[in-house]
Amino acid sequence: MNYLSLAWKNLWRNRRRTLITLAAMSLSLMLVQAFHNLSAGVYRQMVNSGVRAGSGHIAVYRGDYVRSRDEKLSFAEAGLAGRLAAIPEVEGVLPRVYLPGLAQSSRESRGILLTGVDPAAELSVNPFLKQLAAEDMLPSTEGREAILGARLVKELKIARGNKFVVTVQKRGGELQSELLRVHGVVKTGIKEIDGGLVMVGRERAAAMGGIPGQVHEIAVILDDPEADRRVFPRVEALIADQPELRALPWEEAMLNLANAIKLDYASQKFIFVIILLIVTIGVVNTLLMSVMERMREFGVILAIGASPLRLAGMIMAEATLLGVLSMIFGTLLGSLATWYLVRYGIDLRALISENLEYGGVVFDPILRAIWDVPWMLRIAWYVAGLCLAASLYPALKAARLAPVEAMRHV
Amino acid sequence: MLLTLATRNIWRNKRRTLLTLSAMVVSSSLLMLSLGIFSGMLMDILASATEQYHGHVVVSRSGYQDERDMFLNIADEPQLLARLAASPGVVGASPRLRAFGLLSRGNNTYPAEILGIEPGRERQVTHLDHKLIAGSYLPDDAGRQVVIGRGLAEKLGATPGDEVVFVTQAADGSIGNDLLTVSGIFETGDAGHDNALVMAELAWLQEVMVLPGRLHEVALSVADPRLADAAAADLAARLPADFEVLDWGRLLPEMREVIASYDVSRMILVVILYSATGLGILNTFFMSVLERTREFGILMAMGMKPWKLRAMVLLETLVMGLLSLAAGITLGLLLTWYMQAVGIDLSGYLTPVTYAGGTILPRLSAVFEAKNIWVPALILLATCLLAGYLPARRAARLRPVEAIREN
Q1: What is the interface pTM, i.e. ipTM, of the complex?
Q2: Are residues A231 and A296 located together in one domain of the fold?
Q3: Is A189 near chain B, with CB under 8 Å?
Q4: Do B353 and A155 touch (CB under 8 A)?
Q5: Smallest Cα distance from A59 to chain B, Å
Q6: Where are the beta strands (DSSP E) in A223-289?
Q7: For residue range B120-157, what is the model confidence (pLDDT) as tens digits?
Q8: Residue B164's pLDDT is what?
């Protein structure tokens, strides 16, 4: 007996029920695939922006600086940035100095983070500086020019070209104050940056902190985020002669961002489980209905000699076909939806009041998907597998029928 | 008569009916659970942002929240606080003065934001008192005692009982400074606050800043944070024009962005849930009626009118729908309650997440919300009525002979 052709015929004996079940399964599969790809796209965008402004895909720190942010944990740069930049697949290397301090104008004072950078490297990589014109970038690593967050400039009641004082603590413990000039203003849409950023040349910051030639962080930006597995060992090799230094992947250096993504993904997976449960119930119901309405027929088949196993196999063949069909249709639809989301995305600006200003730098208001084909195929097979699993109970019921009672069934 | 016939029909084929009901019960309860989890996640995000520092609504002088200008202040008047606290929906009000300066201990000096509060009132708005990891919260007559963030404490090497020095620029242009005693240390998970925030007594800070009888803001807590914008608008209408009333949406634009993108995610998932559930129920009810076409044919042959047939089927469907929804709602509530009380702990795999001004604990939980129960119930009831009606209408249009011959 050809199970598949018989199963195919049986499915279409009740075209309407089969089509509704296919629609439920295919539609759910499509939306789950599209949603996953959208989430993956959003996560990737978050990571790309985050690592460029923060730790890079790989970061070099001394000791547990990543957690404590203790500015005593600085280390000599000594050409390390150049050696890191020479590694293939490295897009940029950003050595940075971080010193908490107090910024003062004649009217106000504010806690700030004095950030020392290499201007040329930072400008080309850091998304916070995307809207900064080249002439507004710091001209050197030693000058008294500073780039401030927009909110900080406003709060101190100063403007471009004005002078202000920054006080930080030197390595030896005494306070060091310097007069700086506002050279550029950035607006990122992130309150902490806009309200607390003072960016100066790296050597100026290090000198103020009493640690000339030293840095707190070296952020390594990669051409391709997937390259971290190849580049990481080479970074570790370059710092192997300094045991106190540690290389960290961004997931550890930016634990907060990594955890935000994990938390979101965990809740998403939970909801997906519920969705698949609901779909499974629909399939079980469909197959049970199908079995129950054919009791008499099964009775006749059993009476003329079919084995219960064969009957169960026939039902499972029907479920398999149903699963494969919905897998195919669902994935095709999911691909269409993903194509749309990759090309056009979802524009959040249509959902938010117009007066809400965007940083335009860190948070892209258009959510875009990426293609995660392996995952799409995996979930499609899960759905087909669920369909088969859903058929076990109906098949069992059918196999247990007593022929005489079954034939008597209306 | 029709009702009697309908209820009798329901139980004539127990197996089919139970099968139909169970599908609807399980589907509807899972749908309600999912919606409860979405609400739970949203409330977690909101609570973390607004209940650790900001409050739900903030009243201040126009421009203060934008500029943090120490001269943009308001009078510290008992009747102002009383009016704010008595406003509809407001459950707590806390007066505050804010200063920025340097905090020192030994050889270590760090910038700090000092928030002057009245501890008893501040507890109504924020829950920093639940975030202490050492020492104790400010007593009502704190004097020169302060509570500081963990990161700041570590950098200063300070523990409860230690003395620290605060230096700032006062309103009269002088250098204000004083010796303070650390009463407790808090940790919120938000590095910005943990590394720089100090909580002190309002009266003491007013004196140091030479701003006697003045406040920078009054932070309010409202019963339902999602209605904070309405509460803010209501308050703004009743305060003088130079006052500014901001809800959390305008205080924390990043949080609004996060919630907007979250709303998109939720919308997509809700569409999935409703379509999967709806199609499943449509299939179930549709087929359970469709397979009785022959039976309907016989009824019509015996003289039942087509409209009575449709009415009978609708009644059957309505009764089954109500029964299954009653059970589904019960199960949905139980599941939601379980997720609310117990939840799923992810802390073995995540640490708290600081996100757009708030800190979210690594836990999946749900929140009960009436709308998450009655909206899906109505939609699913409408779905099964539609599913029952269509095949019955089709059967009713058949001539009895054709109907009997079918199947």
Answers
A1: 0.73
A2: no
A3: yes
A4: no
A5: 19
A6: 245-249
A7: 888 888 888 888 888 888 888 878 899 999 889 988 88
A8: 92
**Euclidean distance between CA atoms B188 and B199, whole angstroms:** 13
Domain region containing B132: 63-241
- Quick one: average pLDDT of A176-186? 90
Q: Where are the alpha helices (DSSP H) in B247-305?
A: 248-251, 253-290, 293-301
pLDDT of residue B351: 64
Query: Which of A61-65, A113-117, A127-131, A334-338 is the least confident region?
Result: A127-131
Tell me the residues of chain A between 347 and 366 that have a Cβ less than 8 Å away from chain B. 348, 351-352, 356-358, 363
| pLDDT, average across residues A2-20 | 79
Which of B23, B192, B351 has the CB atom closest to A281's CB atom?
Answer: B23
How many domains are contained in chain A? Answer: 2
Query: Do B236 and B160 belong together in one domain?
Result: yes
Chain segment A108-142, per-residue pLDDT in tens: 888 888 999 888 888 888 877 877 877 888 888 88
Q: Taking residues B347-359, what's their average pLDDT?
A: 62
Statement to judge: residues B110 and B224 lie in one domain: yes
B204 with B141, same domain?
Answer: yes
Which residue range is the domain that position A15 belongs to?
3-50+258-408
Residues 6+ positions from B153 with CB-CB distance below 8 Å: B134, B159, B182, B185
Q: What is the pLDDT of residues A350-382, one digit of tens each?
A: 665 544 444 434 556 677 888 888 888 888 888
**Is the same domain home to B308 and B335?**
yes
CA angle B50, B54, B59 (to 5 degrees): 120
Residues of B in contact with A101 (CB under 8 A): 111
Domain-embedded: residue B264: yes
Please tell me whether residues B102 and B223 are part of one structural domain. Answer: yes
How many Å apart are CA B377 and CA A182, to the nearest integer?
Answer: 60
Selecting from B192, B269, B275 the residue whose C-beta is nearest the C-beta of A192 gives B192
Whether residue B68 is found in the same domain as residue B215: yes
CA A303, A304, A309, A311 torsion: positive or negative? negative
The answer to whether residues A213 and A288 belong to one domain is: no
Distance CA A255, CA B352 (A): 9
Query: Is there a contact between B210 and B71 (Cβ–Cβ < 8 Å)?
Result: no
Q: Are residues A110 and A212 in the same domain?
A: yes
pLDDT at residue A65 above 50? Answer: yes
- Beta strands A217-222 and A58-62 are antiparallel
B147 shares its domain with B99? yes
Number of domains forming the structure of chain B: 2
**Chain A interface includes B23 (CB < 8 A):** yes
Which of A57-66, A369-378, A393-402, B254-263 comes out lowest in average pLDDT? B254-263
Shared-domain flag, residues A348 and A225: no
Mean pLDDT of all residues belonging to chain B: 82
Q: Is A333 on the interface with B (CB under 8 A)?
A: no
| CA distance readout (Å), B395 to B279, B300, B388, B398 | 21, 10, 11, 5
Of B347, B344, B343, B348, whose CA–CA distance to B361 is shortest?
B347
pLDDT over 90 (residue B185): yes
What is the nearest CA distance from B303 to chain A, expressed in angstroms?
Answer: 23
Residue A41 and residue A95 share a domain: no
Structure tokens at A55: 């730790």
